[in-house]
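Deliverable D4.2, example record:
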Amino acid sequence: MEIKKDSFRVVKPRLIENLSEIEIDIQEMEEEIVLEFGIVNNYFFEDQEKEGVRCQQMIFKNCVFSQVSLNKIELVDVLFENCDLSNVEFCEGSLHRVEFKNCKVLGLNLSDSRMHNVTFTECNGEHSFFRFSNLKVVEFLSCQMRHADFQGCIFSKVRFEDCDLFLSQMSGAKLKGIDFSSCIIEGMGVRIEDLAGAIVSPLQAVNLAKLMGLIVTP
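Output generated by the structure prediction step:
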């Protein structure tokens, strides 16, 4: 039987040409922060707690976000490259055409967020939180996602390719059509009913059979 895999293409950020580097000082900005049409390079964001920040047509390169809480953030056509967003709070965020490239996103909290056309490439996302988020046309490519939490997520056209999902949490997330065959999924937390239609390798199938109480003999 031929296995039908979801075929889709994630739309990358639609960035205009010749964006200029800009200088910002969030401390001096008003309560409603809007960042648009620029490049922020080597900036250290520290001790920030704001809601409703909007970013559009922005590139962040080599930036560090420390003790930052930007819940309900709106990101449209944004690229993060070589950035450290460890433990950043983006809860209830809205991400559309966003790319994280070679970033540290350890403990990044995107719970209860809406994500459409989002890519994580070669990122370290250990202990990151996506629980109860809606992911539509999203891909994780060559990412370290150990202990990541996807509990209760709604997946629509989601791709995991060459990712380490050791001890990740997928309970309550319907995994039909998602191909895990190139990933490490040992210890993944998942319910039997959530696995229906998921694509796995023969070896992974043997390991997952233990969830069903099956005894696999040589």
